[in-house]
């Protein structure tokens, strides 16, 4: 069950209203790397988790992320507090009010549509979506994804810290950023607490391809490093000479029933293209000087120009 404690996980001290900054901070409220996405990702993983240690950790972190959602949402609410009451009470002149809610970002949408409250959107006003939760229900996949998600959240907080000079906001964002680092550490430890964690799943990779590095982008700039060179790697530079990699004919085949073969042949015959055709198309008929040179004609009039085009040009000159 959930209970609510009225004290925030971290104190929010905002110096002054700033609706434009509030819009930017929504990135961590309802954005892809934001706190709601994190909370929902770990909460749903926790419910489905069979391992008692991971279940406990996921529910702990999910609940903490909800507490972060509360902190970032409270900062947004404080930053919009002035705009909210100004709009509701309409005590400003129209022009002044117009200027104040158009302070930047999507602050006008925040004011008009959401009344200055923290809305579950990203910083551009795109509504939050469950598609941000990329859980696959396999702990070694999901922990890797969680590690990446925490690192993204850390970077977004860092960027937000860099754009504000409000010391109270900087302080609270610094706390939130640091907690993402701590979560990344927990997820890394949990991943490596699973003895066989690579590759994900039960099936091993095919031995012939598991250590193959395919140098598909060749030319100046080709670089070697631990990602493609050394004991763990077989490097393939002769791509053409080794196609297809399985030694087969590289064709795609399927066995069809007699009825399917018949239908397929009829379809192929009906839709066959004629490589010898010389069709006049809308582009030929409609093309003028502004359309540039058409097919193989000379702009002055080539001998092999389509009849219809010759007629169209003759009419124009007459
Ligand atoms: Mn968080
Ligand atoms: Mn986190």
Please, could you describe this protein's structure?
The chain has helices spanning 19-25, 27-30, 35-48, 52-79, 81-89, 94-101, 107-112, 139-162, 167-192, 207-210, 258-270, 282-286, 307-317, and strands spanning 212-214, 234-236. With 318 residues, it is mostly helical. It has three domains: 19-192, Ferritin; 207-242, no CATH class; 282-317, no CATH class. It has a two-stranded parallel ribbon with strand order 1-2. Helix 1 packs antiparallel against helix 4, helix 4 (52-79) packs antiparallel against helix 9 (167-192) and helix 8 runs antiparallel to helix 9. The longest helix has 28 residues, at 52-79. It is extended. The chain starts with 18 loop residues before the first helix and ends with a helix. The mean pLDDT is 91. Bound molecules: manganese (II) ion (2 copies). Residues 35, 38, 65, 68, 176, 179-180 line the site of one manganese (II) ion (MN).
Rg calc: 31 Å
Estimate percent helicity: 40-55%
CATH architecture annotation name of the largest domain = Up-down Bundle
SSE string = HHHHHHHHHHEEHHH
- CATH topology of the largest domain, anyone? Ferritin
Q: How many individual helices?
A: 13
Q: Per DSSP, what share of the residues sits in E-state strands of 2 or more residues?
A: under 5%
Average pLDDT over all residues: 91
Q: Give a short account of the largest sheet.
A: 2 strands, parallel
Reading side by side through the largest sheet, how are the strands ordered? 1-2
What is the CATH domain class of the largest domain?
Answer: Mainly Alpha
Instruction: Provide the CATH superfamily of the largest domain.
Output: Ferritin, core subunit, four-helix bundle
Cα-to-Cα separation, first versus last residue: 87 Å
Hetero ligands: manganese (II) ion
Structural class: mainly alpha
How many discrete domains?
A: 3
Low-confidence stretches: none
How many DSSP E strands? 2
